[in-house]
Fold this sequence. Notes:
Elements: E1 5-8, H1 12-21, E2 25-28, H2 34-39, E3 47-50, E4 60-63, E5 66-70, H3 75-80, H4 82-87, H5 89-96, H6 101-106, H7 109-115, H8 122-128, E6 132-135, E7 139-141, H9 142-145, E8 146-148, E9 151-152, E10 160-166, E11 170-177, E12 184-193, E13 196-202, E14 209-210, H10 212-220, H11 224-228, H12 245-265
Parallel strand pairs: 1-3, 2-3
Antiparallel strand pairs: 4-5, 5-10, 6-7, 6-10, 8-9, 11-12, 12-13, 13-14
Amino acid sequence: MYAFQFERATDAQAAVAKLKSDGDAKFLAGGQSLLAAMKLRLAAPSMLVDVARIPGMADIKVQGDAVVIGAAACHADVAANAEVKARIPGLAALALGIGDRQVRALGTLGGSLANDDPAADYPAAVLALNATVITDRREIAADDFFKGLYETALAPDELITAVRFPVPEQSGYVKFRNPASRFALVGVMVARTGQTVRVAVTGAADSVFRAPALEQALAASFTPAAARAVKMDASGLNTDLHASAAYRAHLIPVLAARAVEAALRG
């Protein structure tokens, strides 16, 4: 490791001010992605600004018909939270399946979203649940947040403070995971509210995306059979040492069907 400055922010405004004063500084929450990148010399920030202990940033609360989760909430707390499990069981199950126990104890919701790893789980939840990403200066709709490979709508000095998840009638998430990293080779999140169904796919392309064909099929019939009947186009999907684009295309409706089964079980 190399020398760098470490600062602990007391509030969001102070954290943002640190990044405005130093263009090479980075926010630090759980550090599960950033610290690994630093060890490999893929990132070399001059300063790390710890935002994990900002008061209120890890709170999880119900506001009307939504669950608001602080950006510094770790995966384990999201998975174990009674309000999340009761209102959005698909989100609780997703958080429980992230990494291993150590990763879940340290990794945070905001850090995962800001990093936007193409195989991360939380982006699928944000997109399928039509969540709103709340920052120190604005609110960003899920459909506008994810821009591409490790790219989001965030400005370099913009800090995620919370995410507001509307409570759906039913939700479910299933992934086919890499046995070593436990990242998703393909992960599918489904959410239904009334006649509207949203389906988000992670791990299959350069960034999380919605699957309109599955959404249309499941809006007409919210059943596993309807999901399995959809044929996904492999163009634009990833081929790597773990799976081909064709295999990922095959997996998407299979996992969508299992996600529907999970949603129907509640």
